[in-house]
Design brief:
Largest sheet: 3 strands, antiparallel
Mean pLDDT: 85
Structural class: alpha+beta
Low-confidence stretches: 141-150
Radius of gyration: 32 Å
Shape: rod-shaped
Order of helices and strands: HHEEHHHE
Length: 166
């Protein structure tokens, strides 16, 4: 009869050990699937995610006259596209469209007809448009702080989809 008591006690110990092992395995599985730190994304993954968010905003056609040294009237017509990775910027650009277009028109009207066709001048114009638009989109409506990096600017790039000088 003494053997039955010890063998019953042994069954309970065995069951307790099995239950503890199942709980440990369940905890390990929970940690593995829910709590373990995931690997940091690679630069390629970050770039792919960023490109999936890319949005182009069309500012439409802008026409203004240029400065002229020969006394004749010269015009410039451009179509400007803004590149952003933040979809919420589209609404802000549309709300501030008159101010943005005015700033670009003033910049273009200050250009000289004989120089504006040069590639470096066009590149400089694109950079200045980007700077001005980011300044307008800034919460203060002023210029961006010098410490703010281009990654944090709402407009990542500016492109001419059309550029005509007459």
């Amino acid at each position: 009869m003494a053997e039955n008591k010890t063998s019953g006690k042994g069954k309970w110990i065995l069951i307790a050990i099995i239950v503890i092992l199942v709980l440990l395995l369940a905890s390990a599985a929970g940690w593995w699937f829910l709590l373990r730190p995931s690997a940091a994304p690679t630069p390629a993954q970050i770039a792919k995610e960023r490109e999936a968010k890319v949005k182009f905003i069309d500012l439409g056609s802008l026409v203004t006259n240029l400065q002229s040294s020969d006394g004749s009237t010269h015009y410039i017509q451009v179509e400007v596209q803004l590149k952003t990775y933040d979809p919420s910027i589209d609404a802000k650009v549309k709300a501030l469209m008159p101010e943005i277009r005015n700033s670009i028109l003033l910049l273009l009207a200050a250009q000289h007809a004989d120089q504006v066709g040069q590639p470096q001048v066009r590149t400089d114009l694109l950079n200045e448009i980007k700077k001005r638009v980011n300044g307008i989109l800034d919460s203060d409506g002023g210029t961006l702080p010098a410490a703010q990096t281009s990654a944090k600017q709402p407009i990542a790039a500016v492109y001419f989809s059309s550029f005509v000088i007459q």
